[in-house]
Amino acid sequence: MTEDLSPAERYAAARTRAAEQATALAPFREMYDFALDPFQIEACRALEGGKGVLVAAPTGSGKTIVGEFAVHLALAEGRKCFYTTPIKALSNQKYADLAKRYGADKVGLLTGDNSVNPEAPVVIMTTEVLRNMLYAGSQSLLGLGYVVMDEVHYLSDRFRGAVWEEVIIHLPESVTLVSLSATVSNAEEFGDWLDTVRGDTEVIVSEHRPVPLWQHVLAGRRMYDLFEEESDHGGRGVAKREVNPDLVRLARMENQRTYNPRERRRGKMIREADRERERRQRGRIWTPARPEVIERLDAEGLLPAITFIFSRAGCEAAVQQCMYAGLRLNNDEARRRVREIVEERTASIPGEDLHVLGYYEWLEGLERGIAAHHAGMLPTFKEVVEELFVRGLVKAVFATETLALGINMPARSVVLEKLVKWNGEQHADITPGEYTQLTGRAGRRGIDIEGHAVVLWQRGMDPGALAGLAGTRTYPLRSSFRPSYNMAVNLVHQFGRHRSRELLETSFAQFQADKSVVGISRQVRKNEEGLDGYRAGMTCHLGDFEEYARLRRDLKDRETDLAKQGAAQRRAAAASSLEKLKAGDVIHVPTGKFAGLALVLDPGLPAGRANGHRGFEHQDGPRPLVLTVERQVKRLASMDFPVPVEPLERMRIPKSFNARSPQSRRDLASALRSKAGHIVPERHRKQRAAAADDREIARLRTELRAHPCHGCDEREDHARWAERYHRLQRDTRQLERRIEGRTNTIARTFDRIVALLTELDYLRGDEVTEHGQRLARLYGELDLLASECLRDRVWEGLTPAELAACVSALVYEARQSDDAVAPKLPSGKAKTALGEMIHIWGRLDALEEDLKINQAEGVGQREPDLGFAWAVYMWASGKGLDEVLREAEMPAGDFVRWCKQVIDVLGQIAAAAPRENSTVAKNARKAVDAVLRGVVAYSSVG
């Protein structure tokens, strides 16, 4: 190839190669045994050129390579690099990877409960740890050159997303930011914001999956491709993916009725034939059982697989079902290796705890190559499952969607049991973004030629909707940023109120709000131009037509209001007359399909209103059941009675009357005609309209006739222009209100928070008081409540176990609220202190309501949850794991996670509590030691 080049071209190529060899990227590329992708090279070059980067690429595409290059640059330049992740499990995983590459002396780890070599040049940490370092002005920030924010799309998270924005806004300008994100549809918008707050930022978006993904639906014994093979239709057009017609036919066939009800008279034999044909057709469609699915995937060489089940209990049940079915995916050698690894990793767990933790059942599943993975598991158990899966010793994992977040567990196949999940409030369809995130695990780079996403057939499935999920890449990044009390005091301490307000205005949340206002503002300007034209069109030479049009509108509005009032009064009168009806009353139904004589069989009064008693509010009012002279028994509604109804006559209804018997209806209808057929009902007299006697209407009509424009020959033309003017003006005002609501929203929330903190003496203008300095060291949802408890000395005199119980109320949130059962609480001082905490929260809640600080918008203090107090009290008092878990009715993984969070807040309280005349700081440290034991201590992640 080079022989074909001219000497000048060969010289230029040699110069280019030499220039590339001189870059930091060249030796970095040699550290990998595969070639870097174009998007990785582009991002690394931008980074070496001094720019920040935002890399948005699919799961498994290798975007962390760019983060690792930032580590490489920092070490080469003698500077520091902080690598942040959203969860501790990811931090641990990344720490292990980088320590293996660069040596344990150069890499550190900082999470809520782990601190390893924190002064190393490369430190992996959770995002919250970096946020806290920035607010504390930590010395560790000196020499910081690069910050990698892995999974930066997590800033959409409703509960923790604000932390990402805080870090991005507050990082020193000298720090280069590397943002790694899943594929989001508004990466350019996010990049524009980063450009605004961080300086020159290159946005690199890659839609390419390194391993192609095939989509399937498993129905019965057959695996269907979701899409037909792509075709460019003979070169006539662009390749387009069409839904597999076999799947469409399958869905249509399942939805067909057994037989057409119009053909009921065709005969029993034909109906039975229809049913038999349908049974045969439906015999091919069913949702395969979990063991069947794994066996099918194994037979087709599609293991290892992750099956996503949106329920912890479902994941555990799936493992049990596979074991009961006799499923074995490992040979004897693999079983031996599994047992060796498991015993090595769990050696630190006391023997008496193993049975409590379900160790032996878990181990049996692992030896067979089957495991569950969810947040309720002990962290050590989860880590073992992850390690065995990566090594290929576990081939089928049943997981909740939390596994989709970043943890390095790629599979050949991903199975989705259902496309609906519980979102904490209701069962909702998964979004295209969630579908992409889940199926993104399929296909291991360097191992698999292709990945496979398998959705199990469910009754009522719509293949078109599934194709829409699989083919859509709409996963917009939406800011969840909201100011908090802790954030407010830290900002005011560092920058003062005015500068803090300006800083918050630079948040991505405000950036998105302002951007959405641009289009609305453009529409307002367009409307204002239209208003000028309409104003010219309604100009009258005789006087002010705008004033005249206003009088006409006021008159019309008043007439409409009176008409509505009259209609409401008539409905109320009709409903009142219906309530007085009794069984046996003969009435005349004035309108509707069943107009004419009718006998009341049942007055149809809702419960609580029988016999004219007050006490019910029913939207539809009484619904009498009547027999008409045409022998029909019908339940009437209030709409059948636009006017009040009066009984015309009374009749006795035989006790033997059966409304379902045609003979009974015929006899009673005949008696009704004989009894009341000759009665002519009185015609309802129409009442005088309220408008005729209304003084306001009389005044408006007088003013209207006296107005100069009333005599204009072109009055109605002007009126049409005036009506258009009014409608457009109303629409414009609505748009202006929307703009006002979106502009400066973050700053307005900050102002309300500052007002509350000022009232409670945490702030005095730009000064942060002693109480405010304490609040600045407390992070969490209930930061202000914790600070108020310290201020009011609520926790003084408590034992370490009692203090742990009280602190649990600041962190714990039940997965499902259960207000029916009061939680069990420790007695004595702890119970009194918990009651005092609820009392203080009530006071803060009332204050927030007064200042319009809205918890629904993610700002403010939620009510403390006492559901974990008894469990952590027992544990801190030295009780055994078996007894504690049995009392708490909680999985071991959840118990460990909540204990770790209690430990975290206890550490903050120990640092923030007064040093003099107080036992809280000392007891908080003792409480940490009391909780950090046994199963909690030997779990490396939380």
List the helices and strands and how they pair.
Layout: H1 7-21, H2 25-29, H3 38-48, E1 52-56, H4 64-77, E2 80-85, H5 88-102, E3 107-110, E4 115-116, E5 122-126, H6 127-136, E6 144-149, H7 162-170, E7 176-181, H8 187-198, E8 201-205, E9 213-219, E10 222-225, H9 245-255, H10 268-282, H11 290-299, E11 305-308, H12 312-324, H13 332-345, H14 351-356, H15 359-368, E12 370-373, H16 379-390, E13 396-399, E14 413-416, E15 420-422, E16 427-429, H17 432-439, E17 451-456, H18 463-471, H19 485-504, H20 508-537, H21 545-579, E18 585-589, E19 596-602, E20 625-628, E21 633-635, E22 649-650, H22 662-676, H23 695-706, H24 715-742, H25 745-759, E23 763-764, E24 767-768, H26 770-775, H27 783-791, H28 800-811, H29 829-850, H30 869-876, H31 881-888, H32 892-912, H33 920-931, H34 934-937
Parallel strand pairs: 1-7, 1-8, 2-5, 2-6, 3-5, 6-7, 9-17, 11-13, 11-14, 12-13, 14-17
Antiparallel strand pairs: 3-4, 9-10, 15-16, 18-19, 18-22, 19-20, 20-21, 23-24
